[in-house]
Amino acid sequence: MAQIRIRNTNVRIENENSVRxxxxxxxxxxxxxxxxxxxxxLHHKFTLSDDDKNTILTTFDSEIRDLAERRGYKTxxxxxxxxATPNIEEILKKFENVHTHSEDEVRAITAGQGxxxxxxxxxxxxxxxxxxxxDVISVPEGQAHFFTLMENKAIVAVxxxxxxxxxxxxxxxxxxxxx
Length: 179
Known about the structure:
It contains four helices and eleven strands, in the order E-E-H-E-H-H-E-H-E-E-E-E-E-E-E. The chain is 22% helix and 34% strand. By secondary structure, it is α+β, with helices and mostly antiparallel strands. Strand 1 (3-6) and strand 2 (11-13) form a beta hairpin. The strands form two sheets. Strands 1, 2, 3, 4, 6, 7, 8, 9 and 10 form a nine-stranded antiparallel sheet that branches. Strands 5-11 form a two-stranded antiparallel ribbon.
């Protein structure tokens, strides 16, 4: 279940209803899918074959299609990252820069953990959304953020896009952001 840490106060939000309410106020979509329906052998597998990816997409087909229909997403894929991913540290460095997009950035976590660092409203400032299997988040277009892995450096997620070519990260220079 997602947890939030507000960076400027170090306040943590851990209750699902409180997480949902907080994210709603920040215009960030949060949902939770039943990760237990994924076949057991994929719960902790982070190097995936095409068959594994197809199994994940098939398992969550109704949830993906429902979200896509409600939000206008037209295409989706699977991203899997772990210590076994070639050049993982260089990949993470690219992720770990605050940026925006011209469309939503969506992740449905099916295994592992990840974290979105998002710029909230003026009163809130930046906050971390720690995600685990079953958590679904959509950071709206134009909202400053970045995504990275947590200490275990292992995640599998469904990504959804409006544009079939995907989105492009636009750098967001913010002197108020401190890692």
